[in-house]
Amino acid sequence: MTHARAERLALSDLFVQLGPDAPTLCEGWTTFDLAAHLVLRERRPDAAGGIALRPLARHTASVQESLKARHGYAGLVELIRSGPAGIYGLVPGMDQAVNTLEFFVHHEDVRRAQRVWEPRELPADLEETFWKRVRTGRRLFLRRSPVGVVLHRIGGGVALGGAKTSPRVEVTGPASELLLFCFGRQSHARAEVTGPDEAVARLMDAPLGV
C-alpha cells in the first residue's frame, strides 16, 4: 500500500470516528467541510480553481456546499475512501506524487484540532519523502515569509528560505513537522523555533504554504 493510500484510509476512518461537526485546523471548517473539499478537489476539477484563485473562490464554495447537500457526510467519506478519483486515479503515479502530502497534511489538520493528540511515529521512507519535498519546495512554501528561515531537519539536513534578510529564524524538527510548519500550520507543528522575538512572531503569523 502506498503512503498516499494509507493516509487516505486513516483519514477516512478518523472522519467516521469524529462525525461531521468536529473541528479542523482549516479555519472555519468542520470535518464535513474538509470532506467536501477533498471530494471537490478530486472529482470536480471544473470547480477546483477557487482553492487557489480568489476570484473563483465563490464558485468553489458553492459547489462544495452542493456536494455536502447531495452526498451527506457519510457519502463524502465513502467517496474519499474509494479514491483516488479523477486525474489522480488515471495518471500512473499521480496519487502518490501529489496526494501523499495532501492527505497527510489534512489528516493532521483533523488530528491536531482535537483536544488530545500526539505526533505519530512515521516510517523512515515517508519522513525522507517529506524532507525532499521541503527542500525542493521551500522557496514556494516560504515565499510569503517576511523573515529569512533556516530549516534544520533532526537527523541531518538544512534548507534556507523566506526573505533574504537577517536576522534569520531557525526552525528545527523532524521532516514531517517542518512540512506542516511550511504548510502554514506553524502553531501546531512540533518544531523548535528560535531567533529574535520580533522575527519569530512575524514568521509565526505569516501565511505560509502553497
Descriptive keywords:
single chain, 8 helices, DinB/YfiT-like, Nonspecific Lipid-transfer Protein, Chain A, 4 strands, four-stranded mixed β-sheet
Describe the structure in your own words.
This protein is of the alpha+beta class and 210 residues long. It has two domains: 3-111, no CATH class; 126-205, Nonspecific Lipid-transfer Protein, Chain A (2-Layer Sandwich). It is built from eight helices and four strands; from the N terminus they run ααααααβββαβα. Strands 2-1-3-4 form a four-stranded mixed β-sheet. The chain is globular, with a radius of gyration of 17 Å. The mean pLDDT is 94.
Number of helices: 8
What is the overall pLDDT average?
94
Which value, in Å, is the CA radius of gyration?
Answer: 17 Å
Q: What percent strand?
A: 5-15%
- Strand order within the widest beta sheet: 2-1-3-4
Q: Span from first to last CA?
A: 27 Å
- How would the global form be characterised? globular
* Percent helix: 40-55%
Q: Low-confidence segments, ≥5 residues, pLDDT <50?
A: none
Number of strands: 4
Total individual domains: 2
> What is the string of SSEs from the N terminus onward?
HHHHHHEEEHEH
Structural class: alpha+beta
Characterize the biggest β-sheet: 4 strands, mixed
InterPro entries: CHP03085, DinB/YfiT-like, Maleyloyr_isom
